[in-house]
Amino acid sequence: MDQLCPLTAHTCGLEQTIADALDADAARVYVGLGGSATTDGGLGAPSALGAHFESTDGTALSGGNAQLGILGETDLDGLRPLPARGVVLLTDIRSPLVGPRGAAPRCEHIADEFAIPPFQVGKMWANRPNEADQAA
Known about the structure:
Glycerate kinase, domain 2, two-stranded parallel sheet, 5 strands
């Protein structure tokens, strides 16, 4: 990768790992989520596992922070079933989706950590509130 692209980076690669575990009939899946986790709010992983996300104009979305700002409809009916013993999410931080310690304010930390230009941080902030509305 020549350049960091936080507005288009996505979690579809995580889907491949989860799908491999499901294909192998894993009884339980453990998913490690790092301190900076993702800038796409996890949109890529569920879409690659069967969820469908559409923009406000009906265009299919597949992931990336920039797409959070135009997220309209969410359809989780096609998601693959969980393994029998569930999925365990492992994190090294406490960061709720919304609020002053939530995901959007974490964008500043991510910017410092990954040298993201300030103009992109503003766009990332602007995209995250729509994600919180969809999750509610």
